[in-house]
Amino acid sequence: MVFFRTCGPNEAMVVSGCCHSRPLLVPGGRVFLVPFVQKLQKLSLNTMTFRVETDNVYTKQGVEISVTGIAQVKIEGQKEEMLAKACQQFLGKREDEIRNIALQTLAGHQRAIMGNMTVEEIYQDRKSFSKNVFEVASSDLATMGMSVISYTLKDINDGEGYLRALGKAKTAEVHRDAKIGEAKAKMESGIKEAEANKAKMEAKYINDEKMAESKRAYEIEKAKYDELVFVQQAQADLAYDLQAAIQRQKIVAEENKIIEIERAQQIQIMEQEILRKQRALDASIKQPALAERFKQEQMAQAAAVKIQNEAEAEALSVKVRGEAEAAAIQAKAKAEAEQMLKKAEAWQQYQDAALVEMVLNVLPQMVAEVAAPLSANTNMKLVSTGGEIGASKLTGEVLDIVERLPKVVNSMTGVDMSKAIGGKHGR
Known about the structure:
Layout: E1 3-6, E2 11-17, E3 24-27, E4 30-33, E5 38-44, E6 48-58, E7 64-75, H1 80-90, H2 95-115, H3 119-124, H4 126-142, E8 146-157, H5 162-350, H6 352-376, H7 391-403, H8 405-413, H9 417-426
Antiparallel strand pairs: 1-4, 2-3, 2-5, 6-7, 7-8
Helix pairs in contact: 2-4
């Protein structure tokens, strides 16, 4: 039967017995073990911390002191040779036994180093003491398979007050040196201060002279600068005023633009309102009016067409009647022309006698026409300025008009009715 065994990194397994001429060392791992013929042992690799105290040890000068150090020691498991040495030294021992062996070794080396050094060396150079103990203990413990990780001197004390006296002497020496140093420093400081004051006064005089020159140069430059500043300020004021005027003009222009924009917007709003009202008016009045107008126009067109058709029919009727009347007139005119031709032929034969006859035939009618206005009046008032009055006057007026008729006929026809009538009666 074979068993499988393991251990952590802080342990080392040692297998001995059958199949192994020398023990098998396994630091933190696994191993196969055959029971009864092989043996398994473990060794701790944990770090061990020691408080190494050595009391009442005489130093090189014979002064009795006590020292306390702190050390960390562990069995080296990474190097097989040192692990084998540790197995030879400590395998089968308890951990407290191993700790005691290492502590006694460290204490012995610490005691030996204390005997080879003075109190002053140990007190003033702790690092050197710790280094000596570390090196000596490391070489000795390495033969046992151990390594010293660190060593530090923690405390030094004595029962005779040597360290205190040494501290007082050192303190007094330090105070003395401090006072001497302070006095030297004060003296040197006084010398340096006097030299500094001298240099300061010289520097002050030189500085005052330079300051006077600088002040004079400053006043000159300041005057020039003030003049330039005044000029620049005046130019700046003028430029500022100019820019302010320009900015005011720009502001006014922008305000005018804003006013124009507002007016344009107001006009646009008014136009939109007018357009809205116009659309509303169109919808409520114009459109019905246009519809009514279209209706009236259509009715007028229909009436015009009707009138035109009636006029055309009337014109056609008039044309037909006119043509008939023209034919009748033409026939009548033809007949009258023939009659007039015959009358003309007769008048050609009778000449003035015919004209006189016609005048005589028309004369009664002409007299009747002259008297017609008188006969139409029912009420007449006669005004006379003298001579005949009444009806006789009126009759005389009528007869005067009748007497003027031959002259009228003569002027119209060129026939002298008096001669014509007298000649007729003479025949």
